[in-house]
Amino acid sequence: MDAVLNGTEAVFAAHADNAAVKALSDLATDAKFDREELTITVARENVIAACKAVRQAGYTFLEDVTAVDWYPSEPRFQITYHILSMSLKARVRLVVGLSESDAVIDSIVGVWPSANFYEREVFDLFGVRFSGHPNLRRIMMPEDWQGHPLRKDYPVEGYR
Question: Whole-prediction pTM value?
Answer without folding.
Answer: 0.90
